Amino acid sequence: MPKFLFRSIWTARPVLFLAYLVLFSYGMFSARPPSVLLMPFPQWDKVLHVMAFLGLSLCTSLLLMARPWGWLAWPVLLAAAPLTEYLQHVLQPRRDFSLGDIVANAIGVLLAAGLWPGLRLLFLPFAEPGHVAPDADDPGPFT
Fold this sequence. Notes:
Layout: H1 3-11, H2 13-29, H3 44-64, H4 73-91, H5 99-127
Helix pairs in contact: 2-3, 3-4, 3-5, 4-5
C-alpha cells in the first residue's frame, strides 16, 4: 500500500474513530436486530459481533497508539464486550441478551489484539512524539 494512504489514515484517525463509533452504536443499540432474511446462516449475527468489535478495537488502538497509556484501551475493550450486550438489552428490551454475543464480542477484541502488532508497525513512523508526517516530496519509510 502506498505511504500516502497510511499518512492519510493517520491524519484522519479521530474522524475515522468517531464515524466508526457512530455506526457501531447504531448497530449495537438500534431497536431492530438484523433481519433474519438477510442472514446467510443461523449464527450470522455472531459474525457481525466479531466484525463490529474487531473494527472498534482497531480504530481505538489506532487513535490511541501515540499515547503512553494507549495500551489501556485493550482491557477497556474487553470489558466492553459484556457491557454492550447488557446495555443492548436494557436500552432495547426487544433485543436479546446472549452469552454467545458476548463471546463473539470478545473474539473480535482478541483478533484485533493479534493483528495489532503488525498493523502498528505500519503506522509507527507517524506516531512518534513530535513527529510531523512526511510531505509528498519526502520518500519516507514506505518506498
